[in-house]
From TrEMBL:
Keywords: Hydrolase, Magnesium, Metal-binding, Nucleotide metabolism, Nucleotide-binding. InterPro entries: dITP/XTP_pyrophosphatase (IPR020922), ITPase-like_fam (IPR029001), RdgB/HAM1 (IPR002637). One of its GO terms (molecular function) is nucleotide binding. This is dITP/XTP pyrophosphatase. It is an enzyme of class 3 (hydrolase). Mg(2+) binds at E40, D69. Homodimer. Pfam families: Ham1p_like (PF01725). GO terms for biological process: nucleotide metabolic process; purine nucleoside triphosphate catabolic process. Belongs to the HAM1 NTPase family. The active site is at D69 (proton acceptor).
Length: 196
C-alpha cells in the first residue's frame, strides 16, 4: 500500500514515512513527482489551505491524496506566524530567517507570556468525493534561542510543554509520539480505507 502526500516539505515527508511505516504503508510525495505544481496557499486558515492543496493534487493526478497545512501559533503576537509560518521572513522559506524573526519579535516578552502551539491540519481528498479534514495541536512555548538539531522548521525554538527541551532536541520517535502531526494522523487512523 502506498499513499501520496501532497507536500514538497522534506521534513514533513520524513515524519509521514516514519508514522505510516508502522501501519505498513509506503509514502511518496510531490518531491518524487516531476513538474508537480506549486499550489497557491490563498486561504486564511490551515483547513482552507490543506483543502486547496489536497483537492488540486487529487484532481490533477486522479488519486486520493493527503495534504498537510501546519504552522506555529504564538499567543503574544496575535497568533502569528500562523498560516504564514513557511514564508514568515520572506518567500524563500528559510527556516533560520523565520526563527530569527520570531525570536526578535519575542525578545522582550516574559516567560509566562510566551505560550504557543504547533497546529497540523490534514486533508484527505479523493476525486469526486467529499474531502475529510482533521486537526492536531501540540502545546508549548517559545524559547529565547535556538537549541537542538533534529526535526525541521521552528522545532529549535519550540519548548515542549512540561519539559525543558525544544522539539529539535527530541528524537524522531519522541517527536512522533507527541507532535501535532502525529495527533492529527491518529484522528485519521480509522479512516485509512478512504485512501486505498
Ligand atoms: O505546503 P507544503 O508543500 O506542504 O510545505 P510547506 O513547508 O510550505 O508547509 P506549510 O505551508 O504547511 O507551512 C508550514 C510551516 O510551518 C512550520 N512547521 C510545520 N510543521 C512543523 C513542525 O513539525 N516542526 C517545526 N515547524 C513546523 C514549517 O516552517 C513549515 O514550513
Ligand atoms: Mg506551503
Amino acid at each position: 500500500m502506498k499513499v501520496l502526500i501532497a507536500t514538497k516539505n522534506a521534513g514533513k515527508v520524513k515524519e509521514f514515512e516514519f508514522m505510516f511505516a508502522e501501519m505498513g504503508v509506503e509514502v511518496s510525495s510531490l518531491l518524487d513527482v516531476e513538474d508537480a505544481p506549486e499550489v497557491e496557499e490563498t486561504g486564511t486558515t490551515f483547513a482552507e489551505n490543506a483543502r486547496l492543496k489536497a483537492e488540486e493534487i487529487a484532481n490533477l493526478y486522479n488519486l486520493p491524496v493527503i495534504s498537510d497545512d501546519s504552522g506555529l501559533v504564538i499567543d503574544a503576537i496575535g497568533g502569528r506566524p500562523g498560516v504564514f509560518s513557511a514564508r514568515y521572513a520572506g518567500i524563500e522559506k528559510d527556516d533560520d530567517k523565520n526563527m530569527d524573526k520570531v525570536l526578535d519579535e519575542m525578545r522582550s516578552v516574559p516567560e509566562h507570556e510566551r505560550t504557543a502551539r504547533f497546529v497540523c491540519t490534514l486533508a484527505v481528498a479523493r476525486p469526486g468525493k467529499a474531502t475529510v479534514i482533521v486537526e492536531g495541536h501540540c502545546e508549548g512555548s517559545i524559547a529565547y534561542k535556538k537549541t537542538g538539531s533534529h526535526g525541521f522548521g521552528y522545532d529549535p525554538i519550540f519548548l515542549v510543554q512540561g519539559t525543558s527541551n525544544t522539539m529539535a532536541e527530541l528524537t524522531k520517535e519522541e517527536k512522533n509520539q507527541i507532535s501535532h502531526r502525529a495527533k492529527a494522523l491518529a484522528k485519521l487512523k480509522d479512516q485509512m480505507h478512504l485512501l486505498f
